[in-house]
Amino acid sequence: MVPTIKDVARAAGVSTASVSRVLTNHPATSPEMRERVLAAARELNFRPNAVARSLRSTGTRTVGLVVSDLLNPYFTELARAVEDTARAAGYSVIVGNADEDPAQQDHYIRILLERQVDGLIVVPTVDTSPLLREAAELNHNLVLVDRPADDVDAPTVLADASSAIAELVDHLVAGGRTDPAIIAGPEHVGTARVRLEHFRAALAEHGIALRPERVLHGDFRAASGHDAMAALLAAEPRPDAVFVTNGSMALGVLQLLAEQHAADPLLVPDDIALAVFDDMPWFTLLRPTVTAIAQPTAELGERAMRLLLARINGTDLPDGDALRCRLTVRDSTLPRRSA
Description:
Elements lengths: L4 H8 L3 H8 L7 H14 L5 H5 L7 E6 L5 H16 L3 E6 L4 H13 L5 E3 L7 H8 L4 E4 L10 E2 L1 E2 L1 H13 L5 E5 L5 H15 L10 E3 L4 H13 L6 E4 L2 H17 L9 E5 L13 E4 L2 H16 L10 E2 L1 E3 L11
Parallel strand pairs: 1-2, 1-3, 3-4, 4-5, 6-12, 7-8, 7-9, 9-10, 10-11
Antiparallel strand pairs: 11-13
Helix pairs in contact: 1-2, 1-3, 5-12, 8-9, 10-11
């Protein structure tokens, strides 16, 4: 296992902050402290990485943004909000697309740190990231947005979907839907698990158990939504409602429904109700229009950038309460005409 700054601090009997000062040649470091840290680093074969090197210089007026998937319109809007806020403050933004790949995420983080950006905003692809944790421990200017990361001590900007999902379930049950399914995101992604947990808990409030066969996992991409919907429609009996937990997967679901229509017409909402987490502008152009939960995407990006600017300027702002999502009920979840 590659030694970390925590390992060096433990071997030298000092804090990680002391190791950070030595690695960055901070003037407030005694010769004795410096020798202890460097001796421990040599013994462990520790090599200062991009995180440590990036701390030696600041003031580039650039920040880095690493998002999970730029093909997802949600992250495109988020990036735009970050860029608009940064530009207004005199900063430029360099964007990296992790493509939902932890290795690619770390690749971009290293590159951005080596370019000595003044700070980073990251949408974590997984719950655990040693590189992000080390960046936070070295007091790099770091803000997380949309998804949390375990053991990373950094401001985190999140959306709260609980009340909107509860409202959606109330609406579905009131319309006679008692056997719903969910197309959830990857199990290793925190937001995917949270949306599933909220959906299950809201159903339980109505005395409805979410059956295991009604839970399918996609990868937040259109193809996985298509395949998951095909599996649900092949089941006997079919669910009476489907909640798709992101917009990209919903695109695949809608494609499958269009294909299905030629061979075995399936009417929405009479045969099955459809709701989506993520509201898309074109949802109102479809027939039926699509019920959706909208995230406060622009506000998330703006808040994340303002938190980062505060850290760059040497001040700390509170993370603030999670920003609430909003349900918009449209035709795709109306009660069956025979109900």
